[in-house]
Amino acid sequence: MTIAILVLVVGLASGFAFLNGFRDVSNAVALSTRTRALTPSIAVLLAALFNFLGAMLSGTFILAFTQSWITLPSGTSGLTILASALTAAILWGVYAWWRGIPLSSTNSLVGGLIGSGAASVLVGGNAVGGMDNALLTQVALPLILSPIIAFAAAYLLVWPVTWAARYTQPNVVNRRFRRAQAVSTAAVAFGHGLQDGQRTAAVIVLAMVAAGLSGGEDVPLWILLLTAVMLTAGTLFGGWRISHTLGHKLIRVDPLRGFVAQTLTSVMLFVGAIGFHLPLSTTHTLTASVLGAGVNQRFHTVNRRLVRRILLFWVVTPLVTAAAAFILELAFSPLADL
Q: What is the mean pLDDT of residues 236-263?
């Protein structure tokens, strides 16, 4: 039974990675297609390639991430906790995509782990270790700090960039920054692969440890390859609902401000993944950067109603997935006794 549930968890983790790429392709391509810097097909192919590279290279940081993350109960109890959390995150992610709302997959997953861990304790199982730290470092701080920093930094960065281009004709400025957006699009996709690739791979590593098939000291190549392939496949088949939200409905941006938002997002993702091993949300960071850069112009039109809706989704995401995973774990819990 342990092996069967492990296979289920690996399958759910693969689906989670696919959905992650499917939804988050918009983070890399929304602005470059909106400003006509890249055609949609070229933008998606570029994002898929650098998503794959980022996910493959994330193996360097996975062990540091898992060692500072959570500790699962061994055996089927730990596996059902993961299965419940992944299922809840997938269901909520599909609903948010259908509504065209960008949100953090990490917040969904951590919320699910909190809910399923609580249900495990309720039925007499073992608790999930390190959830207090995970709640602080992977939900509260990224949810609060990264959007604030991204918004403020993007707003401020527009000034020196526009000052540097003050003597250049507007059509020349737009042409140059459209070209630069090709690079920043690739950088965002690479940063997304680094950040979200290590999350999915870490889940599979934790599942292997809970099943007693790994000590957690290394990351097998097949885990990295599976994660990278599923992220890339999701990117290639990605839906455009969220891309339309970021590129057209949220706020109007020109190539200069699109470049500022994408460049700042990629820098924050690199620093978070490589420098501090912090799980920054690509969605939160880019959305806030787009708003910050877009607001810093003489005539801006922020869709305030949409902004309020996005913020509401961000706040309730860990609560909803925790509740769903709690119910799912109660349903899965009899399997732990088999």
A: 81
Return d(Cα 122, Cα 105) in angstroms, integer. Answer: 26
Q: Determine the pLDDT at residue 229.
A: 93
Residues forming a β-bridge with 71: 129
Q: How far is CA 298 from CA 74, 139, 263, in A?
A: 58, 34, 22
Is pTM beyond 0.85 here?
yes
Q: Which two tokens stand for residue 81?
A: 């906790």
CA distance 41 to 38: 8
CA 235-275-209 angle, to 5 degrees, is: 65
Closest CA to 259 of 146, 153, 154, 147: 154
Exposure letters 216-240 (e unless 16+ CB within 10 A, then b): beebeeebbebbbbbbbbbbeebeb
13 pLDDT band, cuts 50/70/90, is: very high
Task: Tell me if 14 sits within 8 A of 229, measured CB to CB.
Answer: no
